[in-house]
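Fill in residues.
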């Protein structure tokens, strides 16, 4: 009886661990999407005629996952995310990130 309880407890623990890992991956994709879109807005603001886009940045990295691409599209289309993106972009523009903006924005430019 005791062994069955331990086995059941370990099974529940492993299921909850897998669920939290999956939730963490989804949360990471959401956070990364917000960051990418905030940087995109800073790049477009810094150089409006550059045709900078987050899609260009995603295409420049061969290790970009489809789940991140999908999450970027979802967050970009979600009106509720707009304030979070704008707030993060504002915070970035008032931090050391602004000094790295030219380097970061090069990934957002169309590839020739």
């Amino acid at each position: 009886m005791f062994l069955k309880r331990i086995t059941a407890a370990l099974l529940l623990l492993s299921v909850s661990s897998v669920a939290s890992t999956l939730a963490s991956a989804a949360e990471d994709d959401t956070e990364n999407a917000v960051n990418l879109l905030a940087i995109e807005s800073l790049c477009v603001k810094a150089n409006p005629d550059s045709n900078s886009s987050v899609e260009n940045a995603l295409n420049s990295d061969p290790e970009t996952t489809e789940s991140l691409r999908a999450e970027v599209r979802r967050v970009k289309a979600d009106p509720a995310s707009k304030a979070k993106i704008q707030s993060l972009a504002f915070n970035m523009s008032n931090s050391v990130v602004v000094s790295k903006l030219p380097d970061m924005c090069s990934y957002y430019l169309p590839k020739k």
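Residues 2-46 form the longest helix (45 residues).
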